[in-house]
Design brief:
Elements (H helix, E strand, L loop, with lengths): L5 H21 L5 H24 L3 H15 L8 H15 L7 H12 L5 H12 L14 H5 L4
Helix pairs in contact: 1-2, 1-3, 2-3, 4-5, 4-6, 5-6
Length: about 160
């Protein structure tokens, strides 16, 4: 407050408010893991906002959200890089005996238990998908029955 850093002050106030709201919801003080989870959610919200504002051509709001994200990330543990995440995912795959895309949920559960707070879940999911070889549906594949197919009466 004395340095008149408005962005830092307002961001910290927003985070403290989110922490307080979570404590009220749980009816108990938060432990360290829960505090990191709240801050992680706040950081994720900023990242999503930055992406949306960037698509909308709102440079001033991108700059504001980026500054807030930098403040929040200062209170979070350092994030692991892709090579370290890939190594952890490969180790988890070896431990679980996963062999294909159908085992992605099992691998993600164990990997996120180990990497929570240290790595972005979206990045972990992408790495798991690439290592297991799951490309998902291609754009030319149908995504299920169309609305007209669902409305047709059975013969």
């Amino acid at each position: 407050m004395k340095s008149h850093d408005v962005v830092r002050r307002e961001t910290i106030r927003l985070c403290l408010s989110a922490i307080h709201n979570e404590e009220v919801a749980r009816r108990a003080p938060l432990d360290d893991a829960a505090l990191l989870a709240v801050l992680g959610k706040q950081a994720k919200m900023r990242r999503e906002s930055i992406e949306a504002f960037r698509k909308g051509g709102r440079a001033e709001l991108v700059a504001k959200e980026t500054a807030e994200l930098a403040v929040i990330e200062g209170y979070l543990p350092a994030q692991l890089g892709e090579p370290l995440i890939r190594a952890a995912v490969e180790r988890v795959i070896a431990e679980t005996g996963a062999s294909g895309p159908s085992d992605q949920g099992k691998v993600m559960q164990k990997a996120m238990a180990e990497l929570r707070g240290k790595a972005d879940g979206k990045l972990v999911a992408e790495i798991v998908k690439s290592v297991l070889g799951g490309g998902g549906l291609s754009p030319t594949e149908p995504h299920g029955p169309t609305r007209t197919e669902q409305a047709k009466p059975a013969k």
